[in-house]
Amino acid sequence: MKESPKYPNRCVIILSGGMDSTTLLYKILQEKKEVYALSFNYGQKHKKELEYAKKTCQSLKISHKIIELNSLTNAGLFGQSSLTSSETVPEGHYAAENMKSTVVPNRNMIMLSMAVAYAISLDCGAVFYGAHAGDHAIYPDCRPIFVERMQLAAEVCHYFPVQIIAPYLHQNKGDIVAEGTKLGVNYAQTWTCYKGGEKACGKCGSCTERLEAFKQNGIQDPLPYE
Amino acid sequence: MKESPKYPNRCVIILSGGMDSTTLLYKILQEKKEVYALSFNYGQKHKKELEYAKKTCQSLKISHKIIELNSLTNAGLFGQSSLTSSETVPEGHYAAENMKSTVVPNRNMIMLSMAVAYAISLDCGAVFYGAHAGDHAIYPDCRPIFVERMQLAAEVCHYFPVQIIAPYLHQNKGDIVAEGTKLGVNYAQTWTCYKGGEKACGKCGSCTERLEAFKQNGIQDPLPYE
């Protein structure tokens, strides 16, 4: 069963269009990897993030695919998350109990499984994934234990092992902004707000965390807010 | 993070329409579970199996959904499997090297991830999965080590653990036919052949294994063959 992928320098990245995965993209491009970006449309209210992902890939001249998962949302697989239903997106910090409504059931396992499939079909053995420490409090499928178990599963899903690489798993969003600033990330070209309006709301859990990350670094967030 | 699902007797089953998952369906219905069946259309040549899955669920009066994954196939995520491309489906036993062309990259992780999402949205904690010992030789993502690692990941992907239950993991197809016969499974309503023609070909790896399983039990397969 032991084999090696044909293209060891090639990799897939799960790119939401937010600041974490975009920073990770800049990081691996600096490492001279041949990158294939993958985004997902699962009916999220903030699907605007996909336009940001697309523009980033265009300006960095890398391959980008958006996978349509509306069939899953329509079939009811994602249940009643406030990110995909008519329910109101809650405001405040991630840790609060009411933020649970933003959980999209098993979304990360689904995205990882597809990114791993894509890596195999590209004959490469690496998937980069921007999960970070700030997410843990509320999202079960961002915790290190979940990512570690998915890493073990991906190692045995094919004839050669696929590595799921999550460099930010034990870092917070402030650390990511610090690294991204050094890497020259264009944060005006990243979208974070869950509400997906014309301007970022500045109040949802996602905006709250983003604004704190910039503040922690003494940097002005270049995105326009309401 | 510890919670329990609201409906402990409810479960999801991945139902291909083949004999293994159909037998498993009969088995769990006998155990009086409330069953939600899930099938996948990933552009397989033998998508005829989905019609069989549909008929089985209709006759057993259980919920059934078919998830369309053609967007993944069209995006190239499943690469060049002979099950989804113009490449010829090979004939002979599964163990042979040329059967590797029938591998659909990471298909099982993708299907399991969606079944787990469905279980969470149904507020239940069990996914039944018909992987069996005969598949191991050629399919990496049917081996016990893969299924066991996915089980560990599913246990931590949500606020309550989701169990992936694969009762046939260490049994072969002959054992499954033996159990199914006792359960009264209607094998004329199951489809196995990879070629998906009007009648089963009797020569592909999947047919070869099916025919041997019936022979092992001294039973005539009720399906018409070419």
CATH homologous superfamily assignment of chain A: HUPs
Number of contiguous helices of chain A: 7
Task: Please give the oligomerization state of what you see.
Answer: homodimer
Helix content of chain A: 25-40%
Structural class of chain A: alpha/beta
Low confidence ranges of chain A: none
- Biggest interface, chains and residue tallies: A-B, 45 and 44 residues
User: Globular, elongated, flat, extended or rod-shaped: what is the shape of chain A?
Assistant: globular
Series of H and E elements of chain A: EHEHEHHEHEHH
> How would you state the average pLDDT of chain A, rounded?
90
Strand content of chain A: 5-15%
Q: Assign the CATH topology of chain A.
A: Rossmann fold
Q: Termini distance of chain A?
A: 55 Å
- What would CATH call the architecture of chain A? 3-Layer(aba) Sandwich
Secondary-structure blueprint:
Two copies of one chain form a homodimer.
Chain A: E1 10-14, H1 19-30, E2 34-41, H2 48-60, E3 63-68, H3 70-74, H4 107-121, E4 126-128, H5 144-154, E5 163-165, H6 173-183, H7 205-216
Parallel strand pairs in A: 1-2, 1-4, 2-3, 4-5
Helix pairs in contact in A: 1-6, 6-7
How would you describe what is shown here?
With 226 residues, chain A is of the alpha/beta class. The first copy, chain A, has a single domain (10-216), classed as HUPs (Rossmann fold). Chain A is built from seven helices and five strands. Chain A has a five-stranded parallel beta sheet with strand order 3-2-1-4-5, with helices on both faces. In chain A, helix 1 packs across helix 6. The interface between A and B is large, with 45 and 44 residues.
